[in-house]
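User: Structure please.
Assistant: Input sequence and predicted structure:
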Amino acid sequence: MSNLIPTRGSLFGLIRGLRNSDQTAQPIRIDAQTNSIQTIDYEHHEVHAGSHFFYADSVALGDGASQDYLITTPDTTKWAHLTFSATGSVITQVQLYEGSNKTGVSAQTLLNSDRNSSTVATLTVHKGTTGGSTDGTLIWQMKSGLATGQSRAGMIANRNDEIILKQNTKYIIRITSGTVGNLTNLQMEWYEHTNVI
């Protein structure tokens, strides 16, 4: 049992062996008040590294109307790790398609979460689609909300667990309204990380 408890020398060796991304050894930081180890999660790290991005949009849709957002990933091993959420003020359906061959209409501005960073996203987002013969394969969807008489309730579709997008692939996020005067929103967040196999 005693050999399971690290000695001062072995613990120092472990700490000394920890390296950060520039290969320099750094001491573990402990909060003086709580004695807790100070860490941040990986997604937060990507914000500090300047490789985390976001995009948001709002559209009012009529009954049966839809809004497409075309996401295009580059043909590189720098893969996008995406989460997104969409909301509607009433009945709303959100769908995610993979492998579309459509063309984007209006290129959107994508922002770096580190507002001091000049790094730009490698994927692109277009609002609206045109041409092509397929939306691709439906890989995720959600529909919710109410619009009956005085009973109106909104919907929230969250993809909180990240999805790693395929390289060199087009995706469509489609928001479709089931009611007139539907106030819809889309929020996307992702970091771009080079895959190491």
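Residues 68 and 174 are 4 Å apart (CA to CA).
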